[in-house]
Amino acid sequence: MTDFAKIFSPQEYSRRLRDVKQRMTHAGFDIIICQDPANMYWLTGFDGWSFYVPQCVLVHLDEDAPLWFGRAQDAKAAEVTTDLPKQNIVPYSEILVQNPDGHPYDELAQLVQAKGWSGARIGVEMDAHYYTARCHQTLCGYFSENQVVNNQDLVNWARLVKSDTEVEIMRTAGRISTSVMNAAIAKIASGVPENEVIAEVYRAQIAGVDGFGGNYSSFCPLIQVGDKTSTPHLTWTDASLPDSALAMLELAGVRYRYNVPLTRTVHIGRAPEKARNLANIIVEGVDVGLDLARPGNTCEEVEAGWQNVLNRNGLVKESRVGYSIGVGYPPDWGERTCSLRTGDKTELQEGMCFHFQSGVWLDDFGCAVSEPFVVTENGGERLCDAERGLIEID
Amino acid sequence: MTDFAKIFSPQEYSRRLRDVKQRMTHAGFDIIICQDPANMYWLTGFDGWSFYVPQCVLVHLDEDAPLWFGRAQDAKAAEVTTDLPKQNIVPYSEILVQNPDGHPYDELAQLVQAKGWSGARIGVEMDAHYYTARCHQTLCGYFSENQVVNNQDLVNWARLVKSDTEVEIMRTAGRISTSVMNAAIAKIASGVPENEVIAEVYRAQIAGVDGFGGNYSSFCPLIQVGDKTSTPHLTWTDASLPDSALAMLELAGVRYRYNVPLTRTVHIGRAPEKARNLANIIVEGVDVGLDLARPGNTCEEVEAGWQNVLNRNGLVKESRVGYSIGVGYPPDWGERTCSLRTGDKTELQEGMCFHFQSGVWLDDFGCAVSEPFVVTENGGERLCDAERGLIEID
Asked: pTM of the predicted model, to two decimals?
């Protein structure tokens, strides 16, 4: 399949919608409004770089199909990328784009009222990136107090267990991710400007593998060099790579909108023994965690297995060691649901996917060797196949 | 300059802060809270891919420097990329990241109270992409009704007129943009998969020109082919380019975080006469608009000049024909301030920058030949130098 949407069968979309409606019934909602582009995509197939203006998918318990609500000039994109019935694609007036005197959600609220749903219990995504304070304030102005409430990421939770088709896509994204990491490592050398490494990363991300093209990732590729390895979200510079230094790379392969992130640590020039040892401990910890990633075990049990290996070696990692992954749009590839951390008692099921973000930061240096994986009967199946341990570059 | 921040002089940051404080006084605010990453960058130099969690820059009228407030693990990035005094970098607890039971803005509100600013008049960015409904709800919980109100994009408006240093950066970004467009056009040919064109676009974006490295753009590169040219925000597929078709490209060159977007229309194979004619009318309209883009004229006068040329040729463009540009982060490179459209009476000043997004969509095809420009005494100075008109590719 090389074109838009129609990647998933109508049956898969029906199954997703049915699951979401059950969750809505359970939570007491007649309507949910989903502005998270990942939720919009997962529910309908809608895809385009239009999430910089208000847009959403609305699910009503009694309606056969979701409604798409968005900017007039993007309605055609909804026709191209979804199988929604034409009357379910509802454009709002162009004049409302970035207008201090009116907001698209005025028209959304009026649509809800015109449909006769004025009394509906409405769940919104209070902490989704693009659901701004103004979106919420506008919407609430049309309904009673406490009628519009947080749906607690209801659709994000529904996305947690992947179908067979989704797992296949994640595997392809994982192959792209491996290929991107290998391209980055092949480019890294003393004297090469950081931005030239990243240029190669982007090229490989989009070129994809074996005719499976890549898509844009939800984070930009990250590289930190030398003492900047102590902070995780800095982006590249024009500086040339030094003769001897540690460098961390975090990047993703993406197929359709499914992101598979991967982290590796390299050393330009011969690495100190202690860095190599730390990398080996990390890999050992990951393998213990992957073995525990079976149906019936919990998120925190996987984390405990990893943490045990660290503790045995006199180390500790305070923050979570992983999070669920799948569909993602900028600025985040995490699903914002369960995490591999103490206290998270979510029970693993086959088809859940995680990024095992296994890194340890010491006072003077850090090291990360991550593994994205899918939960199977036999434990976590790695989605990538990049060299592990500390990678030394001559 | 190849490393982080320190791109702008301390004097430039002081001037920016002084201007913002004057606007605050005029608007009646003691404090503004800026979560828009572009505003955070412009006020302090802070840069990193951490805007997927709540973070902000807080400006208080009586304080010498802004406060940076963000996730603990990103505080080091604030030290690396800004010159803020150490005590002005305030980390929040890691446990509050994506936590249903607590929010980073609980700690932000407590910080404001602890500083003795409980009675302050607080302006927030109600419609900034990352200022979510939950951020606002959390913050408002600590203050009186109507104490926390919309600051109406106060800092975005302060960014409108660029300094000489900023204009120089925009010129460099424009050179990158030209180079990226040329790389895309060189790659386009019948039979080439769309994603391979985009892979080349990304490579060129990051490679930059003449040792000036590029940065990630606020939109992903856009390509629409054939009948998909009728909707503007679709992204690429794996499909091979056909033997004969119209294709539109919209992309940007980025230096530091300054985005210069550019649109061109190509025809694979010999183009129909009417498409070439339309492109020529567009270029004529742009040139009239550029000539009008002088200090003292208004945004709507520039638009009227362009629209006159269209009308003379029996054409019309309903939507705005341009918007201000400068610092941008995903998902948008527009500054969300003034637009080249009827009714916008903003008076042009030297150093304002715009994307003249000159496209016309007819029933059966569309064409866009845009020009990013900076306002000068002699009219709009083009920031790019890519081939104009309809570009035919053998």
From this structure: 0.96
